[in-house]
Amino acid sequence: MSSAIILKPALEWSGPLQRKVQGHPQFAHWLSQAVEQPVTAERIKQWLQELHAELPAETASPLNQLLRQLRARVFFCLMCRDIAGIAPLEEVMLAMSDLADLALQQAYHYTAEQLGQVHGHPIQSDTGLPQEMLILGMGKLGGRELNVSSDIDLIMLYEQDGETSGRRPISYHEFYGRLTQRMMPLLSDINAYGQVFRTDLRLRPDGDAGPLAWSMAALEKYLLNQGREWERYAWIKARPIATQAYENSDNSSVLHYFESLRTPFVYRKYFDFDALAALRHLRERIRQDWHRKALARNGAQARENIKLGDGGIREIEFVVQLNQLIRGGRQPSLQKENLLLALQRQENANLLDSSVCLQLRQAYRFLRQVEHRLQYREDEQTHMLPQNPGLRVKLAESMLMEPEEFETRLRQHREFVADTFKDAFRLAGMGEEQPAKACGTEPIPETSHGIQQEVEGLIEGLLQTHKIRSLPHASRERLERLLPLLHTQALQSPDPVSTARRLLNLVDSVAQRSAYLALMAEFPETLARVTRIVSASSWASQYLCQYPILLDGLIEWHSLMQGPNFEELAQQMRHELDACQLPDGKPDIELQMNWMRDVQHQVTFQLLAQDLEGKLSVEVLADQLSALADMLLTETLYRTWPLTLARGQNETLATPNFAVLAYGKLGGKEIGYASDLDLVFLYDDPEQENVERYIKLARRMTSWLSTLTSSGRLYEIDLRLRPDGDAGLLAVSVDAFEQYQLSKAWSWEHQAISRARLVCGPEHLRTRFESLRTRLLLMPRNSEQLRADIRDMRAKITLGHPNRSELFDLKHDRGGMVDVEFITQYLVLNYSRSYPALLGNLGNIALLGIAAQAQLIPTSLAEKVAQAYRLFRREQHALRLEGAEKARIDPKRLTQERQAVQQLWDKVIGV
């Protein structure tokens, strides 16, 4: 596209461009060449250098002139490219933001140097290096999405207090205040060359009443004690601008300090339901304030303002930022200043439907492009659509549309945005606009006076504890609203006293976090769900007390009842962990470990809720829990491998030749809620210098999985099944593992490997392990010796798990689960050579069926034992949910099932 074609539509639309071109032929010539290439940060810097070279040496205020001339170049070049349809929205927003960053850097450097000549420069007391001021871009500057005639919102911070040591020393507080005061006119004053940016410092703490520059210590105190919900909303977009006044300064410590304050203030791990009420109020204020101002002028203005009016840009911003405030503390990938990027992350995380995200994205782009054309018209900060019909037609033409098409698209976009804005809290998973109808309105089943008194006594006992009596007044009031609802819910449950005790234990555990009292008191349907869960399971009750963050999930009951998609979960988890970074860009290991634990707890609770609703069989539940463990092991390997690289060492292997073998319950995909993991680590690498790194990797993985952090631990890890047990190396070469298994392993180790599988690692190691496993299972064996070995191992297990009670231990007693597992393992080890169908790691029930089909055991007896094993697992699971430490039942129960197992044992293994 020729420059003349690019310039023509902008000249037809913009008065300032017409005047600039007519009055400055040299600029017109420059513009005709400049518009053919995108406006980038590099080109803007180049233009500044060119302008500086052209500036006469005697210029009185060179920076005042340079920055304004530079702004004119950027503004008019973008205008021409934008209206011609060759500059995407991102180019326009980024270029204006880059211009602001560069202008701030120039103004800051110049002013700091001028002040320093008189007062001296601030110095960091701990390093002796010059101390920089931290300039925060807020609003659209923070998101790198400035419009073409925008003001810029700024907050000025500094790290340490002190006193300069120049000719006229002053406090750092005064130094940075003067610095800020002198910087602003360089940007905002209007002179013969125009203006760079209007500046606004009112978003700083205390607004116009506060100091121009704040120390980090003062900011910390303010955010902790006075920070309000609308400020959390505003600080989402706080971005440190890359500015530097001194060559040898180091700004890393103040950046760390700043992020350590901002992130927990804006993004809270535990969702605050007080914040929810405040955000609802903020939404209403956004809506009502504008309507009030519009009606005071002209009722039509509510329709004509594309930023503040119904279905305008601000409503899109609210929808996106609401999700960030609600979810960002638990999903670091959402912590983005830029709106379009934040919206994309919410779509990736399935927080908003893809169709909603697409329409919001299209509406945002359209409205921002219209906004820019309105501002190009006379270089004014306006958002008002023209009411003059002729101008509306010209506006449509500047958008490269027919008037009818323009008006239709404008109306459609704004209607969709307005509807989405009204529905924002439901879309964010925070329920309907009003809390659900109060629970406890159903008739209470008749209960004895004694039970009611006992429940009331438990409640009174809680109220008398020191923890509850010392609660802040607001929390105490909330608790007093909650307890009658809790009393009603408990009486409606099958076991009122037990349920009340569990509910009160939960209340006691969350009493210091009033947000959870608010959740149960103000969302009664959630309390009903809590009651149902704790009433059904003691273990579930304890799990909620241990991880109350899971209560948030009860709001979205529909989502909680959906099966986890582990492929999507793994992808989203990787996005979130990649986003867990320190200010210097390095991984935040502690945050990553906690985040993985939170994921495990959330998915486990999701499965637990479905389990208690009767939606999962024991077998399906075990498959899901095993898939969760597989996913977390795979990610742990990915995260810990880079941590084994010594400082200064170059990366030679992008991915390790390293695999994780799962034995036992995880190997057989039969793990429960609190199962530990039996693991063996293998590597395949001929380079001897890498061996130590693989051993370090095994140690790192074990620590990552089992370390107790503030979010708990992932799994207890048992490595005793590796060659030579506790005396062996943490990671074993695949050659050594193979040699050990072929020549030294005991029969019980081959029993164990029949249930082993490779969870994660490169494909060639998976192939090698499967080949070795098959080879081991096909080894010729003496049947009698194998029986004797299995009987000996069974006797050792009996000795290791003595049962001195009169109850039947479902797992360890004779006729129980271990006997079934040993029978199956014998059949696999003894008959796989003749019946290869037994080689698959298919689970005990399937293998018994295969053995029966091969006529190795009687079909009727195999079916009875398979059914017995299924019942044993269900009983064990039910006891675990009730919090039982050992799975033991009345010996009179399941007598026939025990007898069937013992009968098959005698037939296959012998006495």
TrEMBL record:
It catalyses: [glutamine synthetase]-L-tyrosine + ATP = [glutamine synthetase]-O(4)-(5'-adenylyl)-L-tyrosine + diphosphate; [glutamine synthetase]-O(4)-(5'-adenylyl)-L-tyrosine + phosphate = [glutamine synthetase]-L-tyrosine + ADP. Its cofactor is Mg(2+). This is Bifunctional glutamine synthetase adenylyltransferase/adenylyl-removing enzyme. Its EC number is 2.7.7.89, 2.7.7.42. Residues 14-247, 528-770 form the Glutamate-ammonia ligase adenylyltransferase repeated domain. GO terms for molecular function: [glutamate-ammonia-ligase] adenylyltransferase activity; [glutamine synthetase]-adenylyl-L-tyrosine phosphorylase activity; ligase activity. Residues 281-423, 792-883 form the PII-uridylyltransferase/Glutamine-synthetase adenylyltransferase domain. Residues 427-911 are annotated as: Adenylyl transferase. Pfam families: GlnD_UR_UTase, GlnE. The keyword ATP-binding applies. Residues 1-427 are annotated as: Adenylyl removase. Belongs to the GlnE family. Involved in the regulation of glutamine synthetase GlnA, a key enzyme in the process to assimilate ammonia. When cellular nitrogen levels are high, the C-terminal adenylyl transferase (AT) inactivates GlnA by covalent transfer of an adenylyl group from ATP to specific tyrosine residue of GlnA, thus reducing its activity. Conversely, when nitrogen levels are low, the N-terminal adenylyl removase (AR) activates GlnA by removing the adenylyl group by phosphorolysis, increasing its activity. It comes from the Bacteria. InterPro entries: GlnE, GlnE_rpt_dom, NT_sf, PII_UdlTrfase/GS_AdlTrfase. The keyword Ubl conjugation does not apply. Keywords: ATP-binding, Ligase, Magnesium, Multifunctional enzyme, Nucleotide-binding, Nucleotidyltransferase, Transferase.
